[in-house]
Structures are given as structure tokens and as C-alpha cells.
Write a structure and sequence with these properties.
The protein is mainly alpha-helical. The chain has one domain. The chain has seven helices and no strands. Helices cover 86% and strands 0% of the residues.
Length: 175
Amino acid sequence: MRKNASRNHRNVRNSILDCKKGNALSDGLIILVSIFVLLIFFAFSYSVYTDSYSDIQADLTNNESLALHSDYNTRIPQTLDSALVFAFVLLWAGAVILAFFIDTHPIFFILTMLLLIGVLIVGAILSNTYQDIIVDDTSLETSFPMMSFIMQHLVAFIVGVVISIVVALYAKTKL
């Protein structure tokens, strides 16, 4: 009975991992799109909040509430910026760790390197879109300095992400 349970566990694990061979590019695209969507959502949310800040301040009557709200107004961009960088690093680390568990054939390495060009094009398009949306509003660019740096150098970051995933996929020894 114990042997069957172990075999079933192995089969489930293999069926989950085997369906994602050569996933460096899809993981890179998922990271790109996820971070871009989070950035746009946070920037839009912060923009709406700053537009309504004076109305909220006018409605508050207690001096303590005004001080807390003012403090919150100065901390929210730092918190959102740090959350975006944390999400980027966490997605990157998760993709590298999960890539290590996937068995791949070395022939996929050549295909991965060729398809990397498409991921770089998508990264350049997202970086330019970021420039058009966020950088034109200088208050948003200064509110999110860490993410502005990442998005302005997105192609270099995505090369690092994909290369680290490729290294995790193909540089492991057979156990």
C-alpha cells in the first residue's frame, strides 16, 4: 500500500512538472506582464488618491486625523513602490526555483535563445508604454523611483530574468 502511495505521489508531481518544459520564455512574459499590470494599477490608484487628497483633508475636522492622513499620504507611494519591487524579486526567485525542478532536453536551449528575441521586444514595448503613461506625469515618476528605474531598464532586467531561468533549467546535473 505504501508503495502505491509513493508511486501516485511521484506521478502527480511528474504530471505537474512535465507539462512546463522550456518555460523560461513564458515565465519571463508572465513576470513582465504581471509587474506592468501591478504598476499601472498602483499608479492609477495613487493618482486617484492624490486627486481626492484635498477633498479628504477638507472633510477631516480633528487635528489628529489630519496628521495621520498627511502621514499616510507621504507613506503610500513608498509602500506601493516597495511592494512592486518585492513582487518583481519574488516572481523572479519563484520562477528560478521552479525552473530547477523541470527536466528539459538541451535542444530546447537553442529554441529558448531564439525566442528570447520576442520576449525582449515585448519588454521594450512595455517599457515604452510605461514611458508614455507614467513618465509624462512627473509626480508619478518621482513617487515610484524604484519601479521607474526597473521599467526604464526593463530590457536589461528581463534578460537577467530569462538568463537566470535558463541557467536553472539547463545547468543542473541529473540526480
